[in-house]
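In this section we turn from sequence analysis to structure. A common task in structural bioinformatics is to predict how a protein folds when a small molecule is present, because the ligand can shape the pocket around it. The inputs are simple: the amino acid sequence and a SMILES string for the ligand, here nicotinamide-adenine-dinucleotide. Study the lines below before reading on.
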Amino acid sequence: MLRNKAVTLLGAGTQGARLAFMWSKLGRRVHLVDPNEKQLDSAYTRIETFRRGSDPSPHKWGEIRLLDSKELEKAASSSWMVVECVPEKLELKRKVVQGLNDVAPQETIIASNSSSYTITEIINGLELRNGSRFLSLHSYWPPETAAIEVMGTADTSPDVIALVMEQCKLHGFQPFHVQRTSTGYIYNRIWAAIKREALLTVAEGVASPAELDAIFKEVLKTPKGPCEQMDIVGLDVVLDIEEHYAAEREGLPQLPREFLKKMIAEGNLGVKSGSGFYSYDGK
Ligand SMILES: NC(=O)c1ccc[n+]([C@@H]2O[C@H](COP(=O)([O-])OP(=O)(O)OC[C@H]3O[C@@H](n4cnc5c(N)ncnc54)[C@H](O)[C@@H]3O)[C@@H](O)[C@H]2O)c1
């Protein structure tokens, strides 16, 4: 059924490029759709770099077609799955998913790569033609991260979940099925708890960021500590994510958010602003 069908990716940014690389591994076509031509060109350059670094390299890479949004209907009509990777704005995601529902064939699976909005939130109140084909398909960065999380809604068909899990495995992902609707999926929930507690530990003056990172790395034998990681992501992004959890769940401590707000107000956003928990000297 899938042999001649493509995967369409909507949004040729950080994730779109990486997913195009993964989904073209078995020689199948990928449609990469973006209204911004520069983004498409830059994505193609990154895909070529990923391919050059791929070990082992597959026998034959699938063709990548770079398409403007006007060609979405054509792209979706020959695809077994469409994944939206547009920016993390709920209203945009809802609009895009409604559009995909309208133009994609009824059996085409429609997935969202959103990090913080569940597919249940995204499709809530939309007029859908076939509600059993929607799911979240959440991948990670950097590109070598094989983990990918698959999460349906109460209406998603188990066959759709099984097919996506199987195809993910075949294409080099390590899929995990999120059994119930969950803000933050599996890994990000664990990571959110680590960040929250790390922020509390520093805010209460129990340890400096450097001490906290050092003990974390020593015990877990991992290259980066929570404060280093938060600096890389950006403290404004860390705050947005934590605000989203706090809006969903009562009883989360406020101090981590207050601490982040103070750092942000002082211009300490992490690597991108030159300082966060650490100083980056413009590097
Ligand atoms: N960056 C990450 O490491 C990461 C990890 C996991 C999940 N995600 C999720 O993936 C999604 C995309 O993130 P990203 O970092 O790749 O974003 P990005 O900003 O790098 O890229 C988004 C792309 O979408 C395009 N776009 C905007 N509107 C569009 C439309 N209507 N149709 C088609 N394309 C459109 C933009 O031109 C841009 O190229 C987000 O939901 C994010 O939460 C990101």
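The mean pLDDT is 95. As an exercise, try to locate the residues that line the nicotinamide-adenine-dinucleotide site and compare them with your own expectations.
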